[in-house]
Design goal:
It contains two helices and 15 strands. It is an alpha+beta fold and 258 residues long. The longest helix is centred in the last third of the chain and has 39 residues. It is rod-shaped.
Length: 258
């Protein structure tokens, strides 16, 4: 958390300004649109090591986003120096939170990288803010071709409530319905469960088949049914029927030469 708030003279960079913010890998990030966010949108990921990079020049830098129980640890790297991991986890839900800030040398360009550290946990970006190197610089909200949806003083410094241009004020009591992004691990787990279930079904069917065959044999023996594969000579011997042997052996009525 950062105790220093942005002011109206600071430069605000929206999450959709991809000319200044680079998301990596691109496939790990999704754009989530909701009026409660600055500019009406927020970038989010659930993939571990997914990150965004921002280059700037100024005397101060802020990272703003939301917090709730589905957020996890993230790593801030400023000019190649990794800082202590921080967390976006919180029991409630709040937007426009100053999650991190830092004073920097205004005479040179800086590179900020923030990465997600926990697979499956949400890591988000609402907007960044910086103090311009020139004290006479006017306020700007850099969003490329996308205008911010909030009206009046923006962003709020003391309250997470945002006034929307259509006159409504969204409730921030509960977390937004995040877009679920299935990870490779989730897909792999799904297929493992699928094959395990098929294996269990196949085993159960095999056991049922064996039981039915055994039951059928017992039933036939109890009813005195002679198996179809019994040898005819064995049947005559068991019945005590006399048999005269010729000079030729027979096998089921067919003479066989010696």
């Amino acid at each position: 958390m950062c105790s220093v708030n942005t002011t109206s003279s600071d430069t605000l960079v929206d999450d959709r300004d991809t000319s200044r913010i680079t998301y990596s890998p691109d496939s790990a990030w999704k754009l989530f649109e909701n009026k409660r966010f600055a500019g009406g949108s927020q970038y989010q990921t659930q993939q571990s090591q997914a990150l965004f990079t921002f280059k700037f020049q100024g005397s101060y830098i802020w990272y703003h986003s939301d917090r709730d129980q589905r957020h996890g640890l993230y790593q801030v790297t400023l000019d190649g120096q990794q800082l202590q991991p921080m967390t976006g986890h919180d029991g409630g839900y709040t937007t426009h939170v100053n999650l991190w800030c830092q004073s920097v040398d205004p005479a040179k360009e800086h590179t900020l990288t923030i990465a997600n550290l926990e697979q499956g946990q949400y890591f988000t970006l609402d907007y960044l803010a910086s103090v311009s190197s020139s004290s006479s610089s006017s306020s700007s909200f850099s969003t490329g071709s996308v205008p911010p949806s909030a009206s009046g003083s923006f962003p709020p410094s003391s309250s997470p409530t945002v006034s929307i241009s259509d006159g409504t004020t969204p409730s921030l009591d509960a977390s937004p319905n995040y877009q679920t992004m299935p990870s490779d691990t989730a897909r792999s787990s799904h297929w493992r469960l699928h094959w395990i279930a098929l294996g269990v079904v196949a085993f159960v069917l095999f056991v049922v088949l064996i039981v039915l065959i055994a039951h059928d044999r017992r039933r036939k023996r109890a009813m005195g049914i002679t198996p179809a594969y019994s040898h005819p000579r064995r049947e005559m011997l068991e019945a005590g029927t006399p048999q005269e042997y010729s000079s030729h052996r027979t096998w089921e009525g067919f003479p066989l030469s010696r």
